[in-house]
Amino acid sequence: MSDFWQDRPVLVTGADGFIGSHLSEQLVKQGARVRALAQYNSFNSWGWLDESPLHDQMEVVEGDIRDPLCCRTISEGVDTVFHLAALIAIPYSYRAPQSYVDTNVSGTLNMVQAAKEAGVRRFMHTSTSEVYGTAQYVPIDEKHPLQPQSPYSASKIGADQMALSYWHAFALPVTVMRPFNTYGPRQSARAVIPTIITQIAAGAEQIQLGDVSPTRDFNYVEDTCRGMLALAECDACVGEVVNIASNYEISVGDTLELIRELMGWDGQFVQDPQRLRPPGSEVFRLWGDNRKIRELTGWQPQIDIREGLRRTIEWFTNQDNLRRYKADRYNV
């Protein structure tokens, strides 16, 4: 392990979430001085950081990226910003699209402006493979057209372009990290892998899903976080958009069968109409090209889908973890 992050002051927005909590922990383990932003709430909850054995080694701050003053305050004295805070649920974006613009686009504007004023060394902006929409060709490289097939996707395209504009206009050292379909412990049950595992773990004889024909490029959360750190250490990545992908696709249906095998479940799958996206909004194929990140940093995934699912199942089937999920309800 290199000493690149030793004593380096780092801000992680969205540190209370799924990927953000894992990234914050990896940074602490590598010696960084982590300032972890959790979204302010009246419950005094730090999200997944409440459960982290390392949260007492972080400076946890509460705030909201929709507030420019908050963004300025948390960016002071920081070397590197990992910007992960966002609204991410696709179905909820159909109901509340304005909130996605406010958080994902305006919130990103607030953060890049704050980073510019603070003079940070690097601004690592988190994108999503959803911006590509259904693949026009595979594997999907960074030159693939952007297709806003949901309000969520549109807001992330806007956020990506806002971040990149600060590189072009103000020389803010921005990198757009574009992870494909991250999964693992702590993921929201609105995502397909936790949806399957939690229903089976709760004893369901039938599990309810949407369309199982789309393919996804799944990446275990530890691999995604390693990719983010590698990009932040790479000077040649400034001003670049870079996929974090496994270069492998698997259908939702085949993922279900793999989980069925690993969990020894012999129940039935039932299609739930409320879990189907509008026809023009479903992304039917995602398979990411990871050549660019390999060439720039040497990164490649270390945990294959079978091993990643085994670890994820082990975490979710722990009763202390499973009780945090409402397996009998559809998570929008």
Structure description:
- This protein is α/β, with parallel strands linked by helices.
- It has 2 domains: 9-183 and 220-244, Rossmann fold; 192-216 and 248-289 and 303-322, UDP-galactose 4-epimerase, domain 1, CATH 3.90.25.10.
- The protein is built from 11 helices and 13 strands.
- The protein has helices at 18-29, 68-75, 90-95, 97-118, 151-170, 192-201, 221-232, 252-263, 291-297, 305-316, 319-322, and strands at 9-13, 33-39, 59-63, 80-83, 122-126, 174-179, 182-183, 206-209, 215-216, 219-220, 241-244, 250-251, 268-271.
- Strands 3-2-1-4-5-6-11 form a 7-stranded parallel beta sheet, sandwiched between helices. It has a two-stranded parallel sheet with strand order 7-10.
- The longest helix is centred in the first third of the chain and has 22 residues, at 97-118.
- The radius of gyration is 19 Å and the shape is globular.
